[in-house]
Amino acid sequence: MTDGRTTGSARAFELLEPLVQAATVRVHAPPGGYDNPRSHRTGPTWGSGFFIAPGWVLTCAHVVGEGGAAVRLTGREVGITFSAGSITGTVTGRVECVLPERLEERRPGRHALWDLPDLALIRVLAPVSHACVWLTDRSRPRFDEVAYFGCTEDLGTPEITGRTTRLRGTAGNGAAIRLGDDDEIEAGMSGGPVVDLVRGEVVGVLKARRQAGGGGLAVSVVQLRTLPMAARGQVGLYRRIMQAHDLYHYDQHLSDLDNRRTWTDVHGELPPEEGDPYAGRGRLTPGERTTLFGLLAELPPPGSSEVVRALVEEARGEEPDPLPPAPLSWRDGLGLLHDPPGGTAEAAAMLRYATDVSVAEYREPVTPGADEELWDWVRATAERLWRPLRRELGERHERGLAERERRRRASAGRAVHGPARRSGGLPPGASVLLEVWAHGWEDLYDWRVSVLAGPAHAGRVTPVDSGVRATLAGLPEALRAPLAEGFRRCDTHEAAALLEVAVAPALFGLAVDEWVVVGGVPLGVQRPVVLRHPAGANPAVANPAGANPAVANPGGANPAVANPGGANPGGAREHPADREGTDASARWARVQAGPLQDERADCIRGRPRSPATEWLTGLPDNTVPVHCRAADQEPTLGSLHAVRDAGYGVVVTRRPPPDPGASCAPFHRGLREELADAGRAEVLPVRLQNLRGRAYGADPDAYWAAGTGLVWEDPARPLPEEEPLQGDL
Fold this sequence. Notes:
It is a single chain. By secondary structure, this protein is α+β, with helices and mostly antiparallel strands. Helices cover about 30% and strands about 20% of the residues. It has a six-stranded antiparallel barrel. A six-stranded antiparallel β-barrel has the order 7-8-9-12-11-10. It has a five-stranded mixed sheet with strand order 15-14-13-16-17. Strand 8 and strand 9 form a beta hairpin. The radius of gyration is 29 Å and the shape is globular. The two termini are about 50 Å apart. Residues about 35-40, about 415-420, about 535-580 and about 725-729 have low confidence and may be disordered.
């Protein structure tokens, strides 16, 4: 059907239709069904899907959930019917993963809209030869003409058909794409691909149709980046699949075994985009792009998302788009280099990026010669471009080689510059910052999630997401996706990033370490979690008399509001070490080196007490004040303020057990042994994570640590200077 299409899009549809149809599949019950496995009948259509890599089918979670809401999705077997030339085959597949993960525990009723991103990955259980689509590398779609494909039964038998429309916008913070009402979306087409007709790439997965009229929703394929992260030292599912995807198309491009047109061939035949400022030498040719993707796929994946973003910033000349989801592979970095600013040629930016990747530090040993092959290709490709660029790339490569060699010598201990973290300490890279503060007088809370760049770029912050007016009970659900995005940006193959929770002391009992974000395991088991005092003015100024802060700052409002003209009007976090007249700097350095000495701050043999200022300031610098009572009640609340004012940057807190009559003695006894064994404070965040893991694994010797929190005011990790949201006006 060509009604409403431009001449260019009609030609693009004609070129792309055979490629997309060859990779699109029908999803149904396993051959024979669950009741009669020996039968070869496939049963009714549940929906559609499409091959994105050899052996991998992408579809919607609600498609594989068809036929029984009580059936567990992950591990479920389904039937896949596909075409290979003139032959139609049916194989069995197994659902390997669904997004979001919480669909396994909570999914909507029949005919209800499933939560975004509503995706499922199916692994085919038999070796079969099939076609794969070309997935976009762009982080966000362009609002152009598209085609969507799926299984229909217009003539009484299932067949893969395609129709056209336009993209009308996004929804769900970019996770979904709105489709126009140019044509009808039938039920069996759910899970089928949405193809950008201008660039010839799959940008979405059909999800839903409007009940009244045409149009509907598709899920952006970029949401594949939200697949669960791998355990430390392993390559995640997303990176493995995208590597297989790129190598498939690279091999197809290089093969001369048949004359069938490949996606790369068709990309070269698509009508040119009108008004493209980068046409000609400004863009890589389709063959060059496919080759670059393949060469990048031959390399080990990057160590973290921040590595990719840093190289993109160097090549692009400005910070890349901070919107989620984070780039996880080398190909994702290329997707951030399209249409660079200032009229800079896109091809030049991509070649700069490829040059930097060829001399980057990889997470594992590189295949011999793979990095050199990438550089040889860059140098050869630059021959058709500008002579100054060729010279620039050569100099860039030489500098990169020298810097990589310097890093290797430094890691071997022959050229170490500056102090290195001792074994067992926190990872030195970026951390995730969660800020929560009370919303005025109401029992509601505003929040913000950011990425702190770490000591190497102290004070640099990248926002992830923010929200207002959440209840304490609703915070875990509201923060699930933003925290997951922050972790994707900061986690490396060596370590899970630190989570810093900046809240008023009255919220130090917030059980963030028990929240489950991804993987079905509590945050405090997955990664180090520490508490921070919030950004804002010095509490001693806002509360000079040392009274209950809740009285000096009624309603638990942002301290910056209670002290608008205080010593720090910009809202910057003032670390105790920055204030004159305190020993905070000496305390921090001394307690990091150890040995550690614990001191009960809010109790004496189980009875509550309020510590005197003179007593706190007179304790040795290697003291760790310990609190065992509820943080939002006196005397603990006042004690938490007092120990901060006395310059203590390492403090232990605890959420009291449900039984108010339970003795705190086992907690203090276990903590004293832990501090003595740790020896120095710099290892405490990771040791506390290990303790939580032991308790989660039902180790009775670690039960005493339940609810333990660690206040960690690291001066090398300053909080952002921007004032937090003040809530709705």
